[in-house]
Amino acid sequence: MKNHRDNMRAILSILCVFISGVIYAQNPAPADTATKRILLLGGYAHIGNGKVIPQSAIGIANGKITFVMDGKNFKPSRLAFDTIIDVYGKQVYPGLIAMNTSLGLSEIEAVRATNDYNETGSLNASARSIIAYNTDSKVTPTVRSNGILLAQITPRGGLVSGQSSVVELDGWNYEDAAYKMDEGIWLNFPSLQTVKAWWVDSEDDQKKRSEKKMADLNELFYEAQSYAAGNNAVYNPNFEAMKGLFSKTKTLYVRCNFVKDILAAIAFGNKFKLRMVLVGARDGWMVTKEIKENNIPVIIMRTHVLPERDDDDIDMPFKLPVLLVKEGIDVAITDDGFWQDRNVPFQAGEAVGYGMDKEDALMSITLTPARILGIDANVGSLETGKDATIIVSSGDILDMKSSDVQMAYIRGKEINLDNIQKQLYRKYMKKYGLKEAE
Amino acid sequence: MLISNGKIIKVGKAINLTVFKIGDLQIIDGTGKHVTAGIIDEHSHIAINEGVNEGTQSVTSEVRIGDVLNPDDVNIYRQLAGGVTTSHLLHGSANAIGGQTALIKLRWGKSAEQLKFENADGFIKFALGENVKQSNWGDNNTTRYPQTRMGVEQVYIDAFTRAKNYDVARKNAASSKSSVMPRRDLELDALAEIINKKRFITCHSYEQGEINMLMHVADSFGFKVNTFTHILEGYKVADKMKAHGVGASTFSDWWAYKYEVMEAIPYNGKIMHDMGLVTAYNSDDAEMARRLNQEAAKAVKYGHVSEEEALKFVTLNPAKLLHIDNKVGSIKEGKDADIVIWNDNPLSVYAKPLKTFVDGICYFDIDRDKQIRERNKVERARLIKKMMDEKSSGGAVQKATLTIDELYHCNDNEKSPR
Asked: Which value does ipTM take for this structure?
């Protein structure tokens, strides 16, 4: 009998080793439902709305933030919390929000089979990114490890690319991950700016092409507007998807960069009375008055780009956010990719060196995206009643020199910040007998 | 720090200035600022005219980047503003054996020849992996040899065998009166230089197998690979790289853009560095090249490399890889005065260069840049007024045109028509 039990134990331990080896290169399992009452005590809280609390006390229960207060003299009652976490000397932030991303829609850029963000044809209003979103992308945990906890999954290409959705970066399937579905429609505004370069056709041809696109775009929106207003005998998927634009329950995200296009896009949005956001808006500094008086938010895709023109100020992309923010325009800073999104906090940090206030830079990757997405009632800042979607870093999250996300919560659930890159790191450190520096 | 005639003369806590007449000295107050050596980018494609890949054959060792320099590329100025002082300009990665590289200092305003780094060792670009086998160029690019990694090794063995035979034949003919001198072959000349350890290889590489392969091929012909660039799986064969004596010039955190980079990790630099390899971070990108100081900071973030060692990833280590560490790469008496003054810790995202010196000449000054912008504004207004006056007095008009220049990356193989 004893031998049998020993054998079983031996078999079990071998099985365990085998299983842990087999599941080596996997994403961590999604977090369990939040049940714990947690206190984060002593951390430097960056609320996300510009305010800070140098030594804070943050309470979490049932997935919500129950309080955010000055924790200097806070004496926690052991009975009130299941877990008290000492975060003295650390920085606490709202979970970061990355807009305009193809995360989950692309796994390997060069491999066509892994790309699901660009449908063929130019009018794809009905195409929905959420059902193509891969919750099990190996890339997503690497982005999450730098503090991004929510993302806007965005289609690209064509004239009207499709519909974006907001997801939490945790979930067994797209329904679990979805935070707000089909909230926006994406438009690549036909550019009136012709260019001269050896790899494009003649300027006359470019102009004709743009004019045709503009005509198609106007026709699409007039018909969609009609459809939205009336009873329709025939169901049209594109027009059905666009209905929400005319009741302003859906947002039109317009990609454009040249100044002429920005003005034309604003006029277009006003013509159809749409809730509109400018995406890119690289020449936006030239027309801040028009953007502001129409209350249009701006999403900046990367500060880490080169200036558009040879004679543009060399630091124009770095200072663009502050040039807009100081005119009262809502600015979100993000990237234009997927794996690159782990650097979104540093895109925001770049603007700080060129005049942006640090807490405003943080807001551009937390509360402002939440406001643009219409989810700010529940997320985007460390405020009572909002989701306990929080990150803790040992250092300044906007600076690559000091950013080090050590803890993350999505609606109160503790998130495993491991990823395949950390696994490979440990594997080879072990192979070479190297020790991790403290 | 005392600089004179383009060199660093003295570095110390205090320097005796009494030997100088005050009028002879330009004194820059660096209180509260940081000073580093100029950044060296081991892998760049700026300042190149009309194409970065001679993609017609897989062996094109005869072509030279030094023949097609463009000193008017504004990215030279933009990168000075990012603290870069020396750039290694490479042929693209379309070919197993690409063209000879050019090493330049960012002497903005000088001619193409004047950009070249004097007396630098000659380098040549090799490449391995998907670009070389045209994996991602569509269905019309499936016939040029090699199309698999197997073929890549064969290309090298064939090329070096031909080069060795050519080299031996020419040496024999030179020393004997009887044998006929084989005709000059520019492609084999360059390869023979590699065999004779007069030209050095920087090889675009990703997967551990191909890295290992090239080291073995080199060993079999009696030379060493100098640098593996990109080298995103270098961490997997760091022990073998160490034994071979090769260095690494990599990205801090790029991945997921091709299949061969799916096991790239941002801890790559740290592991290779800890294994004793000379490890550098490069750009291969005109935008990122202006922020290499921030890329170096990622070595601190991913793997906790010390700040001093991380800064070396973009200064002394690339200098060592390029054999120019006797002249640049650190602030040392006797070295070239290639220096950057920063407003903050150079590894911080909040830092920016205030002044960038090359050979002791201030090629970028943040205050002068502001003045240049004002000057340009005035000049633009003057030109516009002149054009409008012409128009109103009946002169011929034409539409304003926005011209765009191409930014090159390793895999750009389009031909610009002339």
From this structure: 0.94
Sign of the C-alpha dihedral, residues A341, A345, A348, A353? negative
Question: Which of B73, B367, B377 minimizes the C-alpha distance to A310?
Answer: B73
How many Å apart are CA A414 and CA A412, to the nearest integer? 6
C-alpha B412/C-alpha B91 separation (Å) is 10
DSSP secondary-structure letter at B67? G
Kindly report, residue by residue over A369-401, the tens digit of the pLDDT: 999 999 999 999 999 999 999 999 999 999 999
Question: Is the sign of the CA dihedral B334, B339, B344, B346 positive or negative?
Answer: negative
* Strand, coil or helix: A79: helix
Name chain B contacts of A404, Cβ cutoff 8 Å. 301
The closest of A286, A296, A299 to A260, measured between CA atoms, is: A286
Contact status, residue A378 vs residue A65, Cβ threshold 8 Å: no
Per-residue pLDDT of B198-234, as tens digits, reads: 999 999 999 999 999 999 999 999 999 999 999 999 9
Categorize the per-residue pLDDT at A438 as very low, low, confident or very high, splitting at 50, 70 and 90: low
Contacting residues of A for B372, CB less than 8 Å apart:
none
pLDDT at B407: 77
Q: Does A342 touch chain B (CB under 8 A)?
A: yes
B39 three-state secondary structure = strand
In the prediction, which pLDDT does A21 show? 42
B349–A310 CB contact, under 8 Å: no
Residues 115-144 of chain A whose Cβ lies under 8 A from any Cβ of chain B: 138-139
Contact between A26 and A61 (Cβ < 8 Å): no
Helical residues (DSSP H) of A306-407, grouped into ranges:
316-325, 344-352, 358-363, 367-373
**H or E stretch at B63:** none
Residue B418, pLDDT above cutoff 80: no
CB B128, CB B150: distance < 8 Å: no
Question: Residue B257 and residue A339: Cβ atoms within 8 Å?
Answer: yes
Query: pLDDT tens for residues A105-151?
Result: 999 999 999 999 999 999 999 999 999 999 999 999 999 999 999 99
Q: Rounded to two decimals, what is the model's pTM?
A: 0.94
A19 has a pLDDT exceeding 60? no
Asked if A187 contacts A161 with a C-beta cutoff of 8 angstroms, the reply is: yes
Q: Per the CB < 8 Å rule, is B136 touching A314?
A: no
Q: Tell me, what amino acid is at A104?
A: G
Q: Which residue of A has its CA nearest to B135?
A: A110
Pairing label, strands B361-365, A83-86: unpaired
Q: Determine the Cα–Cα distance for residues B343 and B354; give it in Å rounded to an integer.
A: 6
Chain B nearest CA to A97, separation (Å)? 20
Identify the closest residue of chain A to B345 by CA–CA distance: A401
